[in-house]
Amino acid sequence: MLNRRGFIKSLSVLAAGTSLIGPPRTSLAGTGGGKGGHVVVIGGGYGGATAAKYLRMWSQGKVAVTLIERNPRFISCPISNLVIGGVKTMADITVGYDGLKSTWGVKIIQDDVIGIDPIERRVRLAQGGTIGYDRAVLAPGIDFMFDEVGGLAGHTERIPHAWKAGAQTVLLRKQLEAMPDGGVYAIQIPKAPYRCPPGPYERACLVADYFKTAKPKSKVIILDANDDIQSKKGLFLHAFNSTYQNIIEYRPNSAILEVDANNRVAKLEFDEVKADVLNVIPPMRAGDIAVRTGLPLINDRWVDVDWLTMEAKGVPGLHVLGDAIFPAPTMPKSGHMANQHAKVATAAILNLLANKAPNPTPVLMNTCYSFVDSKNAIHVASVHQYDAEKRIFMPVDGAGGVSAAASELEGQYALGWAKNIWADMLA
């Protein structure tokens, strides 16, 4: 249980002048903002936006919901590799928050949260003021551990990660367009767990597909810090060894220890790789606000949660979703899974606000599509049932599975999946 002394200690890393203990400059909402209670949602991605909408929908408008998000519009990480491959544009993966406001009555504040006081149940905003809550949903996504790769900090303009969709996505696409034919694109995959396990392999395929027509003398080198492909292994290997036989080179057990940013050189334990475009996805952990709040972390990286309510362990009233949490067995860090976390948390929150016990047998499902070229895609699906004895979600044997082969039909399904889940979150 996080006590007040522990919480105050956790605030030591907050910037000077941002103490939560003093009186707030402005109170935007008090605790209990609606007849059914007030929930503050921090982060408007797959998890946070879904929670904001479903809290309003399932409570029939009785619960007041405030969503705090730093960006003016939602930009999807899933499908963003198609932008990097030149198949889609940023406009294709960008959706506004207008539906949450106009249809569901969610109050939206564009700002950063710089502190959470789970004892007093208040959050502090970067632009000033605090907001009280009865319960809070924290969906902060991931932040990067740049210091884990020597020489990388401060050089993301020259060595982009493009693992948060937005400006970095555009930057990597521009670097690929400017690369001369005959050049080398190298991508580093960090040790698992990381956001979107199949995403780096999909990106390598889509860049190779672009090279086949635009820069046929060029190569893709995958430097994987893991000892094997982390998702859809057989399907990706088939693409590497057939469609992209002379373009993609896959190197397992190839962690980058250091980079020479000026020369775009990746330094491994026994080798060096010079690239024309160097795309390093750094090791990652739960978003900074989870760390600053002093939430319980597993391996100093991922938030430990009570899976029945999605509350951070020992921190009642603060529910954590999505990529920031330590995953249950075989559970991927994916947009679809964050959407599912949000629905479990929403149901639990509404029950708890009504002094009822949460659903004792929740079920989650996940589907993840990956394109292997501009039209053909593959998928993996899974179902996860809460195990009351183990107090965690476990995969359901025989449920889910993977594609037999890549197909254009699955490519159509993939684009349909994206439109449907964006509507589920935001419309």
Task: Explain how this protein is built.
This protein is an alpha/beta fold. It is built from 10 helices and 28 strands. The protein has helices at 4-10, 46-58, 80-84, 98-102, 167-178, 199-214, 233-243, 288-292, 335-353, 408-426; strands spanning 27-29, 38-42, 64-69, 73-75, 94-96, 107-110, 113-117, 122-125, 130-132, 135-138, 142-144, 184-189, 219-224, 248-251, 258-260, 265-267, 272-274, 277-280, 284-286, 297-298, 302-303, 305-306, 311-312, 318-320, 363-371, 377-387, 392-395, 401-402. The strands form 9 sheets. Strands 6-3-2-10-24 form a 5-stranded parallel beta sheet, with helices on one face. A 4-stranded mixed beta sheet has the order 1-9-8-7, with no helix packed on it. A hairpin with a 4-residue loop joins strand 26 (377-387) and strand 27. The two termini are 37 Å apart. 48% of the residues are buried.
Provide a concise account of the structure shown:
This protein has 427 residues and is an alpha/beta fold. It has helices spanning 4-10, 46-58, 80-84, 98-102, 167-178, 199-214, 233-243, 288-292, 335-353, 408-426, and strands at residues 27-29, 38-42, 64-69, 73-75, 94-96, 107-110, 113-117, 122-125, 130-132, 135-138, 142-144, 184-189, 219-224, 248-251, 258-260, 265-267, 272-274, 277-280, 284-286, 297-298, 302-303, 305-306, 311-312, 318-320, 363-371, 377-387, 392-395, 401-402.
